[in-house]
Design brief:
The protein is α+β, with helices and mostly antiparallel strands and 59 residues long. Helix content is 42%, strand content 14%. It is built from 2 helices and 2 strands, in the order H-E-H-E. It has helices at residues 8-20, 39-50; strands at 24-27, 53-56.
Length: 59
C-alpha cells in the first residue's frame, strides 16, 4: 500500500481509519513533523486514502 515511502505505522493508521470508517485523527502538535515526508503531504495522503482529517491539539 505505501510503496515503501510511508512508515509501517502510518500505513497501519490509514488501514485502521478505513476499517473503522474514522474520519478524524487527533494528534499532538508536531507529531507528524518527525517523519521523512512533510506533514502536509502526510495529511493529504491520509485524507485521500482514508477520507480522514488530522487535528492537532495542545496539551
Amino acid at each position: 500500500m505505501s510503496g515503501g515511502l510511508l512508515s509501517p505505522a502510518f500505513a497501519d493508521l490509514i488501514q485502521e481509519c478505513r476499517r473503522a470508517a474514522a474520519h478524524t485523527v487527533i494528534t499532538l502538535p508536531g507529531h507528524l513533523s518527525h517523519m521523512s515526508m512533510s506533514r502536509k503531504v502526510l495529511q493529504e495522503v491520509l485524507h485521500v486514502r482514508a477520507e480522514a482529517i488530522v487535528h492537532e491539539v495542545e496539551y
